[in-house]
Specification:
The protein contains four helices and five strands. It is α/β, with parallel strands linked by helices. Strands 1-3-2-4-5 form a five-stranded mixed beta sheet. α2 links the parallel β2 and β3. It starts with a strand and ends in a 5-residue tail after the last helix.
Length: 107
């Protein structure tokens, strides 16, 4: 099962530098597409290995982190492996598509 944290400004840089796969998820409470994407992310928690860390970042509470990753629209996801940025996803995507992006990184 994946690990999930709520990102704070203090954790932003250290989270992305961790070993393993990190899904940095930028969202806002008022965003409809973010709510949909949030439900999809919640569904994959049990379907992904514990080496996945999902860091949820509410852009209104973590402005510095959103700015550091040039977040201009939400939802946005940034995927890291062993501290290296692998991919940016700039919109809501389906569960199968998200798993397709993440699964190869666990090998």
């Amino acid at each position: 099962m994946a690990k999930v944290i709520e990102l704070t400004p203090e954790l932003c840089e250290s989270v992305t530098q961790q070993k393993g796969v990190v899904l940095l998820y930028f969202k806002a409470d008022w965003c409809g597409a973010c709510k949909t994407m949030g439900r999809i992310i919640d569904q994959i928690i049990d379907e992904t290995p514990e080496q996945l860390l999902i860091a949820k970042c509410n852009i209104e509470n973590c402005i510095e982190c959103a700015a550091a990753y040039s977040v201009t629209s939400i939802p946005r996801m940034v995927i890291f492996k062993d501290g290296t940025e692998i991919k940016r996803i700039n919109s809501a995507i389906g569960k199968a598509a998200l798993l397709q992006e993440l699964t190869p990184l666990f090998n």
